[in-house]
Amino acid sequence: MANKYVTDEARKQIGKTSEPRTYDVERGAIRRFAEAIEDRNPLFNSERDARQTRYGSMIAPPTFCRSMGAPIPNVKLDMPTARALDGGSDWEYFVPIRPGDRVTVQSKLVDLREAAGRLGPMVFTVVETTYTNQFGEVCVLQRSTGIRY
To answer: What are the structural domains of the chain?
Structure first.
């Protein structure tokens, strides 16, 4: 099948980045998030108990990044308004996010491809979102797949 929507012009968008967004991480926000997901791990709820761990202080739960709005690059396709699905995300964790951190979130389109589906052409977009702290350390890397059909 020849690509109908992922043309050479559309592929030029690969590498396109979103505007960065920066968030101040507060201890109370970490606690409230842990409470909302019903995670009672002392690492996320008690500074006193967390100081006794290898981390030396409270840290954010791995899913805390979901509370930071990840900007998504606007991918332009000459495709009629279509249905969309979340094709899933892969997450890699490098450095814990701690209270007091300033985390900058930025996303980049890293792949764009088309495949034939039962209902017609499907376009897959892969967006890589980086969560970087104030020291320039990548805390988390997320790769998300979106499907338009």
So the answer is: 8-25+69-148 (3.10.129.10)
